[in-house]
Design brief:
The chain has 13 helices and 17 strands. The chain is α/β, with parallel strands linked by helices. Strands 1, 4, 5, 6, 7, 8, 11, 12 and 15 form a nine-stranded mixed β-sheet that branches. A hairpin with a 6-residue loop joins strand 13 and strand 14. The chain is globular.
């Protein structure tokens, strides 16, 4: 979509209407820069968000929501609670697939967590487990798109872009939104019709010291004064062009991005270097571990970026799409992510950051309680699970979320929510609420109407707020 043609004055007017709680000096600064820090609309519990995205769909029956009926019926045909005329490849027999390993009560709260997640089990009393999350599409890309942008199709601003737009940058030397190891679909961290300055900055953890985690970050000239002079000349030309052609959000975003990029050249290299972290911290996350190194470095960097003032950090961890041989594949996925994710919570808490940092862990959907056999001939021990958007599990921690609490329940199959159903629109509304943003008022006028992250849906899940 094309970005809206919107003047500074009209942007200020729309901001004043949509952000009634903003202080006057915030509005003046916002009129000068779309990235200027802005006050929330009401008192916030969280200042920032870390989104741990488990791409592929973690299996909630195996990790958080076991069902006794499915265990007892393992390997037998069950009457699936769905329209059996729907095309579901490899699930025509509807064989019950028992939970992999044991899922036990953990901590004083008794939250159910699998033996496959021993590190997550150690933080049970810090997390809020949602067991009846619901999405609208059973295919990976549309479901992932909805989780990140609120829609299953189209090009809309991602959650991080909306938050950057709503709150601005806490640290003017860094982007408001950073995506670590993002999906190839740039829509998942794009800004769409919002000013381009709010899009996510892609970060890839380097595999060697010669690589930069952020593209084009290095100053090839090696001369800060010369670089500053070149940027000043380019910016004068850009502003002259904008004055001749009329205000344009893309051009404004480009100007802001160039300024941020220049400041990042002196700030970011040291920030993204984790070699200065203590050995104890690196060990806590699993840096250097055979299974954990990549995700450990990503989670440790997420903490550093959040601590430095980045509003929204997104960490993508793939490998959760288990259509086949889930009994061998799932433990590997858990081993790669369990320790880094749990360490992030422990590290944030030890530094006094968890109270005002909201951490969200989830995939785009979950997996079915019945098996999937793509070959049609494999023994059930080699089966996997199909996609399940009807209900799945996610957890949240910090940022004013109720700790040690389980919300939501599913039926005997672990398929349909019985209580505590949380749609992705509700989840988005709750995340924004914890940041002091009203999801119905955080809007941008585009194509003749006001758009928002939750579209025309969404309710804050008040039951999980502390």
């Amino acid at each position: 979509m094309n970005a809206p043609s919107i003047s500074r004055r009209s942007w200020l007017q729309s901001s004043a209407a949509g952000f009634g709680a903003l202080a006057l000096h915030d509005l003046v600064q916002a009129a000068q820069s779309p990235l200027a820090a802005r006050a929330p609309q009401f008192p916030a519990k969280a200042k920032r968000v870390i989104f741990l995205f488990m791409s592929g769909g973690p299996s909630q029956p195996d990790l958080f929501d076991p069902k006794d009926y499915i265990r007892r019926m393992h390997g037998q045909t069950i009457t699936a609670p769905i329209n059996t005329k729907e095309l579901r490849v490899g699930t025509d027999k509807f064989l019950a697939l028992a939970t992999q390993g044991e899922v036990r009560p953990r901590g004083q709260s008794g939250i159910m967590i699998s033996d496959l997640l021993p590190h997550t089990a150690s933080i049970a009393d810090e997390i809020c487990l949602l067991r009846a999350v619901h999405a609208d599409n059973n295919q990976h890309q549309p479901a992932a798109l909805q989780f990140h942008t609120g829609v299953t199709a189209d090009v809309r601003p991602s959650m991080g872009a909306w938050i950057s737009y709503g709150l601005g940058m806490e640290n003017q030397n860094l982007p408001g939104f950073i995506s670590i190891h993002p999906d190839s679909d740039t829509r998942l961290y794009g800004s769409s019709f919002l000013p381009a300055a709010h899009q996510g900055t892609k970060v890839v953890i380097p595999t060697s010291d010669k690589q930069s985690p952020i593209d084009y970050l290095a100053d090839v000239s090696g001369d800060v004064k010369a670089q500053r002079a070149r940027i000043d000349f380019t910016q004068r030309m850009n502003r002259r062009l904008m004055g001749q052609a009329g205000s344009d959000a893309r051009m404004e975003g480009m100007i802001e991005s160039m300024e941020t990029a220049f400041r990042m050249q002196t700030t970011a290299p040291e920030l993204v270097d984790i070699s200065n972290e203590s050995e104890a911290t690196r060990k806590l996350y699993g840096v250097g571990g055979k299974d954990t190194d990549k995700n450990a470095r990503a989670c440790l960097l997420a903490r550093k970026l959040s601590e430095a003032g980045v509003r929204f950090v997104q960490v993508t961890m793939g490998g959760w799409d288990h259509h086949g041989d889930i009994r061998n594949a799932l433990p590997k996925s858990c081993a790669a992510s369990d320790q880094p994710c749990a360490a992030l919570i422990k590290d944030l808490k030890s530094r006094g950051l968890l109270d005002d940092t909201l951490v969200v862990w989830s995939g785009e959907f979950g997996r079915t309680p019945w098996s999937q056999d793509l070959s049609g001939t494999s023994p059930i021990e080699k089966h996997g699970r199909e996609h399940q958007p009807e209900s799945f599990c996610a957890w949240m921690a910090g940022g004013g979320i109720r700790p040690g609490f389980t919300f939501g329940e599913t039926d005997d199959f672990g398929f349909r929510p019985l209580s505590g159903k949380v749609h992705l629109h509700d989840l988005h509304a709750t995340i924004l609420h914890q940041l002091g943003l009203d999801h119905e008022k955080l809007t941008w006028r585009h194509l003749g109407r006001d758009f928002r992250l939750t579209d025309v849906h969404g309710n804050v899940v008040k039951e999980i707020l502390s």
